[in-house]
């Protein structure tokens, strides 16, 4: 008996191939989003020169991509409850396809804005549905690692975006940046066909009463029939279906099928547990962007320029190095997510980020006050920026998305995550559209000191969060409640 038990436990811990393939497919969407973010960092240099637009117009161009994420993310939560996670991924792919065609064509600033607007809708959908689908189709023992593939894929996309700007800049000015922006069309088409072949989230299927279809998917994503049936019973209980009910199609309330009343439960009449979950999940997204990751990624060329790096090729090489750091450290985080846990990674990440950005602030302040060039400043700035990006990518970046996609109850998960992403987009848009104006008013060093202060507050906040590693999604409410009571 002991041997069989040991073998069964070993089987349950083995990574399931179908779950892995499903998550990797959904992560392509995250890679497209990452590419859109990364490519704009370098493309802005050429767009400004070619279209002869001002810094204010550049800020609006960047801001509209993130501004669209606000209504799109709120819509995506409800849409994914109506049509399913899989078809919502397909909708996001169509938005990216349309947006990349328009921005790649863009004969004028107006068309460029429209294309970026449509791509922003795809981004809002992506930030909801990619981690949601991955969390709901992954087994508990590997959920952290598999769901973190969405953040890893974003970083792959960002790096590819940086590399794209470096290679396409060799083309003539009016063609190079348009080619950079048109690239996402190809993977968007491929993803549409791929998602038509893969399974739907078993949790969404049970919310629709399609228990038989959900069981088929669970048998694919778990290594043993026993574990699949156990998980099926737990999900049925969470949705309000009797575990002993053997019908393949079960009638469930319309409110459960379509997520009706979820926002009311989140905001108007939240239970103490839901209120605590909202504070934890939304707080993660607020501190991630207030900590400066968006402005560092997008405006890093301006930071490097302040220290004397003025060549476009050198600036783009510096951003490629930054993309490599993001990719390497987000890859490392995959192996620690289900071992070390979410909370410890957040604390390590927050501490490293604070030290790095404080050093960056000191360096930029010295540069701004110096009457001669400081020969060491460019190297110090590059190293400090890379350290900042590395620590952000090993903890705060991936954990924010994993945590907020797993902590909500099943009937509130899609729209709860939508609220988080809406807040994420608001804070990110506010940071990106105001950064140039703020640093011109209080200096670049002053901005970086303010970001360091925010990261100190974030460290305290992360310390208060409960650990969720290894718990099933259906067991998450008990985990959170016990932690907050203690």
TrEMBL record:
Where the record annotates domain Major facilitator superfamily (MFS) profile, the positions are 22-470
Major location category of this protein: membrane
Residues making up the signal peptide according to the UniProt record: none
* GO MF annotation: an example: symporter activity
Q: Where in the cell is it found?
A: Membrane
State the UniProt keywords alphabetically.
Membrane, Sugar transport, Symport, Transmembrane, Transmembrane helix, Transport
| Pfam families, alphabetized | Sugar_tr
**What's a single GO CC term here?**
membrane
Q: What InterPro entries has UniProt attached to this entry?
A: MFS_dom, MFS_sugar_transport-like, MFS_trans_sf, STP/PLT_plant, Sugar/inositol_transpt, Sugar_transporter_CS
Q: Where are the transmembrane segments?
A: 15-36, 56-75, 87-105, 111-134, 146-163, 175-196, 277-299, 314-337, 344-367, 379-404, 416-436, 442-463
The answer, when asked if Aminoacyl-tRNA synthetase is one of the entry's keywords, is no
Membrane topology category: Multi-pass membrane protein
Query: Does Membrane appear among the keywords?
Result: yes
Q: Hey, which family's this protein in?
A: Belongs to the major facilitator superfamily. Sugar transporter (TC 2.A.1.1) family.
This protein is called Major facilitator superfamily (MFS) profile domain-containing protein
